[in-house]
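Run Short D7 protein through structure prediction, thanks.
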Amino acid sequence: MKSAIFALIVILAASDGIEVKEARSVELVCVKEDGCLKDCALLYQPSNLRDATHLKYQDKHNGCIQSATGENCERNEQIRDCFTKDEPEVDELEDEEEATYTIYWHETINV
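Sure, done. The structure for Short D7 protein is below.
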């Protein structure tokens, strides 16, 4: 009886697909020099995929770049502050050479 129920579950899962939540993220990665955010780039995980949320963060980043003023260090700090503003959770990892600000979300996919 157990094997029949298990077989039914496998058949249903195979016919309809299984929905799983896949972790995705966007990272603002900045190279530091003497405490200054010298150069920043936006990186996506997975890097070969773009969805509506990726595009939302790309648009947000573009808006932050356009609104930032000042010299390089000050400008990159403004971009970082703008990009992370209003985000419920931002993981920060910082050392002397690099600062990374990561925002995570989950997408439901069928497998």
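The mean pLDDT is 85.
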